Amino acid sequence: MDQQFDEKLTIFWDSGDIVLVDQTKLPVTYELVRITTISQLINAIKTLKVRGAPALGAAGAYGVALAAHKKKGHSAVKLKAHLRLAARSILETRPTAINLFYGVDRVLKAIEPCITVEEVREVALNEAFRVAEDDVIVNKALGAIGASLLKDGDVVMTYCNAGRLATVGWGTALGIVRSAIQEGKRIAVYACETRPLNQGSRITAFELLEDHIPTTLIADNMAASIMKQGKIDSVIVGADRITQTTVYNKVGTYMLAICAKTHGVPFYVAAPLSTFDYENTVVKIEERDANELRFCRGKQIAPRSVHVENPAFDATPIKLVTAIITEEGIINGPHRAASR
Ligand code: MRU
To answer: Per residue in 311-337, pLDDT tens?
Structure first.
């Protein structure tokens, strides 16, 4: 029997505010938080209450709409100037995921021709709705295409969280798993815990179990030996940005790609076209607070004075990627496609 999945949204608009799942509370509590100001949104993005590239795209788009709706008594020209400033402060939160820029830019572009304040507000919100709706549509298309790569009984390894909670709904990497299961295939997932913030154990394991998808949690340092034991049919991860030569995703992705190559396991990247960036060659990798490594959930786990490096993302050379799965098709051997 085909399995049906809930259509829960990670982020949505409600009565003039943004509402989002507070992902820092997972897996213990599933709590919605109401965002009424841009500074609350900025805080929510920086602290990863909302996270994952496509969800950040929607957060950025809704953020510009929020700024438009909360600002009173402006002319259209002044309101647009105010929105550009709000957009800039939203974009300063996290530099790596291009989807944040994509969501913000779509709304800023949409309001350009608007003449009245009312028009700016209406167009901004409508475009933000479209960014959010498009995300679910695109993920389902990508999922259906990617599902063709999975066989009944396959076991997929994934990293970080590229599921419904990293998007507005359905997910990219985990969207492929959901689509394959909906087609009637039996798919199991190995979720890497994804230190230091444990998006794998807290969020991926949570959302997969919610959907009754067989899940095994492993520590990140087990990935190579699990692959060596022949337990994994493919690795599927998401992406924060894809350039001609490189996939930027959660730090540790590169290590997984090397392991997959060594063990002959296909390494797939699932990402909407909005994650591609063929313009910039220099990509800023977000460096996060050192205390994320010195402490774990408030408990000290390293000397307070130890020097720490804590980049949120790493860069996987595209030649290690077997295929990139998008909503418009599969790019096989993407390093060859890019050099053509
Ligand atoms: O720091 P995060 O939790 O925002 O990192 C998220 C990831 O690295 C995801 O793999 C990526 O955004 C793709 S989500 C579909």
So the answer is: 999 999 999 999 999 999 999 988 776
246 and 285 inside one domain:
yes
Report residue 14 CA to chain centroid gap.
Answer: 22
Beta carbon of 169 within 6 Å of any ligand 1 atom: no
Q: Which two tokens stand for residue 252?
A: 């540790």
- CATH for 210: 3.40.50.10470
Residue 23 parent element (H or E): none
Ligand 1 atom nearest the C-alpha of 249 is 8
Neighbouring-strand partners of residue 33: 20
* C-beta 51 within 6 A of ligand 1: yes
Candidates 99, 249, 283: which one to mutate for ligand 1, based on the most atoms within 8 Å of Cβ?
249
Give the domain CATH number at 94.
Answer: 1.20.120.420
Between the CA atoms of 144, 271, 259 and 294, what dihedral angle is there, to the nearest 10 degrees?
-130
Q: Say if residue 325 is in the same domain as residue 254.
A: yes
- From the CB of 93, is ligand 1 less than 6 Å away? no
pLDDT digits (tens, 9 = 90+) for 74-89: 799 999 999 999 999 9
The mean pLDDT of 176-197, rounded to a whole number, is 98
Q: What DSSP state is assigned to residue 247? A: E
Residue 3 falls within a domain, yes or no?
no
